[in-house]
TrEMBL record, chain A:
It is a single-pass membrane protein. Component of the cytochrome c oxidase (complex IV, CIV), a multisubunit enzyme composed of 14 subunits. The complex is composed of a catalytic core of 3 subunits MT-CO1, MT-CO2 and MT-CO3, encoded in the mitochondrial DNA, and 11 supernumerary subunits COX4I, COX5A, COX5B, COX6A, COX6B, COX6C, COX7A, COX7B, COX7C, COX8 and NDUFA4, which are encoded in the nuclear genome. The keyword Mitochondrion applies. Gene3D superfamilies: Mitochondrial cytochrome c oxidase subunit VIc/VIIs. This is Cytochrome c oxidase subunit 6C. Component of the cytochrome c oxidase, the last enzyme in the mitochondrial electron transport chain which drives oxidative phosphorylation. The respiratory chain contains 3 multisubunit complexes succinate dehydrogenase (complex II, CII), ubiquinol-cytochrome c oxidoreductase (cytochrome b-c1 complex, complex III, CIII) and cytochrome c oxidase (complex IV, CIV), that cooperate to transfer electrons derived from NADH and succinate to molecular oxygen, creating an electrochemical gradient over the inner membrane that drives transmembrane transport and the ATP synthase. Belongs to the cytochrome c oxidase subunit 6c family. InterPro entries: Cytochrome_c_oxidase_VIc, Cytochrome_c_oxidase_VIc/VIIs, Cytochrome_c_oxidase_VIc_sf.
From TrEMBL, chain B:
Pathway: Energy metabolism; oxidative phosphorylation. It is found in: Mitochondrion inner membrane. InterPro entries: Cyt_c_oxidase_su4, Cyt_c_oxidase_su4_fam, Cyt_c_oxidase_su4_sf. Component of the cytochrome c oxidase (complex IV, CIV), a multisubunit enzyme composed of 14 subunits. Component of the cytochrome c oxidase, the last enzyme in the mitochondrial electron transport chain which drives oxidative phosphorylation. This is Cytochrome c oxidase subunit 4. The chain crosses the membrane at residues 104-122. One of its GO terms (cellular component) is respiratory chain complex IV. It is a single-pass membrane protein.
Length: 67, 171
């Protein structure tokens, strides 16, 4: 009957800390890091002029018709 | 100020009539109303409630209470339990015991979700008109081709899933 609040509070404080740190870690290594990697990989060998020519040829640019 | 004037007019009547009648009828002592007395309550954080659980004791229970005034080693186990039950309604174990209510709640929730599903299916079948022409397969595939031509979301989105060399979706 002693320390009812203290025991409950200790349990929940530890749990809350672990859950929130766990969520943050999972997000960082599951979502944020892969996203940064994907952008790095995409732009490493990106050639904008080649992309422009491809879009022009497909006919989606109104002021740069394929002709 | 006006409010206090009104109160003095009504002030004589603020004490309830029944209490006044009661006061005059019992030699000056007012009988306590039921709701003003302390009550018994089973609560985990209040281990010793203000009153005992059983208020009016039967003859048997009163005899037991008299026996309680003597040495407690003379009491049998059943008598001790009886004394406990006079004082308390539920033990802590009984108080903390869970119920099966969650099954009822879960069943109710799932039932109403199902009912909603039936209603939605009926609506799609009998009530709604046709969807717009922009949802047909031809339109959607032309739309997707245009998105790929425009290089929409090339890093992680739709264009990243398309293989331009083989002209098909990436595996």
């Amino acid at each position: 009957m002693r320390g009812l609040l203290a025991r409950r509070m200790k349990f929940h404080l530890l749990g809350a800390f672990l859950v929130s740190m766990g969520c943050a870690t999972l997000y960082k290594f599951g979502i944020a890091e892969p996203r940064k990697q994907a952008y790095a990989d995409f732009y490493r060998n990106y050639d904008p002029m080649k992309d422009f020519e491809a879009m022009k040829a497909a006919g989606v640019l109104e002021s740069a018709p394929p002709k | 100020m006006l409010a206090s004037r009104v109160f003095s007019l009504v002030g004589r009547r603020s004490i309830s009539t029944s209490l006044c009648l009661g006061a005059h009828g019992h030699a000056g002592v007012v009988k306590a109303e039921e709701y003003t007395l302390p009550v018994y309550a089973d609560r985990r954080d209040v281990p010793l409630p203000e009153v005992a659980f059983v208020r009016e004791l039967s003859a048997q229970q009163r005899a037991l209470k008299e026996k309680e005034k003597a040495a407690w080693s003379a009491l049998s186990v059943e008598e001790k339990v009886e004394l406990y039950r006079i004082k308390f309604n539920e033990t802590y174990a009984e108080m903390n015991k869970g119920t099966n209510e969650w099954k009822t709640i879960l069943g109710g929730v799932l039932f109403f979700l199902g009912l909603t599903g039936v209603i939605l299916i009926w609506q799609k079948n009998f009530m709604y008109g046709p969807v717009p022409h922009t949802f047909t397969d031809e339109w959607v595939s032309a739309q997707t081709k245009r998105m790929l031509d425009m290089r929409v979301n090339p890093v992680q989105g739709i264009t990243a899933q398309w293989d331009f060399d083989k002209n098909e979706w990436k595996k």
